[in-house]
Amino acid sequence: MRKYVSKAFCYLLFSTIFITNHILAQTQKFDSTTIANLKKQIIPLVSAKEKQVQEMVDMVFSFGELGFQETETSKYLISVLEKNGFVIEKGIAGIPTAWMARWGSGSPVIALGSDIDCIPKASQKPGVAYRDPIVEGAPGHGEGHNSGQAVIIFAAIAAKEIMLKNNISGTLVIWPGVAEELVGTKAWYIRDGYFKNVDACIFTHVSGDFSCDYGDNGGNGLVSVEFSFEGDAAHAAGAPWRGKSALDAVELMDVGWNFKREHLKPTQRSHYVITDGGDQPNVVPSKASVWYYFRERTYEDIQSMYDAGIKIAKGAAMMSDTKMNYQILGTAWPGHFNKALAKVMHANIKQVGMPEWSEADQQLARATQKLMEAPKMDQSGRPIDGLRSVIDTVKGSVPYSWGGGSDDIADISWNVPTIVLRYPANIPGLKGHHWGDAIAMATPIAHKGSLAGAKATALTLIDLFTNPTILVDAKDYFKNVQTKDVHYIPFITKNDPPAIYLNKATMDKFRPEMKKFYYDPSKYKTYLEQLGIVYPTITKKNTQ
Hints:
alpha/beta; 6-stranded mixed sheet; 4-stranded antiparallel sheet; 15% strand; globular; signal; Peptidase dimerization domain-containing protein; Bact_exopeptidase_dim_dom
């Protein structure tokens, strides 16, 4: 990559130097024995939150809200944080369901984040290893984003108690990944300055593993953009020659892009849906739109795809004699994560260890893997057979990647030293973005995995608040390795609003029926109990 320097990066560079020089002076120093004792104290505090973890995982699962429409989820999470002394700034970056919660004062400032949105058409009863939606056609947590806030919130609450008891200074910041499936918010958080004074960020994401790696993880970045065409309606049979079809423009663009694929690198991923194809066949469509994700491994290649998409759209408009405009709906950089922070987290993962899976847990996992036709081996050559019991070694940058998924946590990672804790709350070997990935997400598998993730996060918070050397090393890696030759350039500008209207119609359609199934912890111990599900339900003959 060429060296790009933005104003935001210059600010970050000078502020990093300033903060690094003050970390050792301002952060309290604790000897290794004291730190070990604090860690012994915090594990029982997190364990005592086991019931609250289960309730939060199940509650958010029951809401099943799509990106930008996470109103019930945000209201619920904010209420829990306010009861525990956090001060909330609501509606950050112009996003109604986004917020930042703060507790404490002074340095260091540690941010904790996790996503909250779900997947379209992924409604599924938990603990049931066959297709059985709670509400037919409704969205559901077919990724597992219902579990991550429990990981960070109860880790932070335990850390808060330790900090108060031991007079430890520092600031905890908790935030939600709104509309992650649309990669629709984190670049906006960065643009609007919400991470300027953060020293480090711990992000958490559901997984079948218990891990925390560093460097380039092999994922792609992307630009999500909708192209809209405007033509002129006419009677499709009586006078079609008088119409200018916007749908023709969409189809011409799609044909043009599919020819373009032959001349793109094998690392690219590009996909689209027609969001508006007209109203009815007998009317020449005056308006039509198509929504693209352009994914690649580097900033330059993403920008090149984006530019090519715009050219093809302009060409389609010329051929169909229509007008074209476009809007960025989301964006993510390729990820890069911090070595110093990852090694600390990994040591704490090993201290916590994998959850103890029951035979029922393993039965559900293997039945789901069979249902989803999981491969025998994962991409690392490890066998896929039930839930994992072994913690892998910490890994650095991949030597090469053919490309893959994206996550807008990467935009934060290029501005603040950041790691991603992957905690073992779902079943290995599933498809992703599918109702099958929701099967485990309000069961003991998700409860145990989330509690384990909270323990590892809490231990890492103790390290960060008591050992200033870690943050100095993290900032050194960030400055002298990660951003030495590659510097963050946002794809969005101040003129690009967040696409907060997305998914509104879908949630308006399904929410009334979904409300009937919201979890009520005052009446039921678990969501499984509320739904009357025998755990695990493997075949239909076992249902009640």
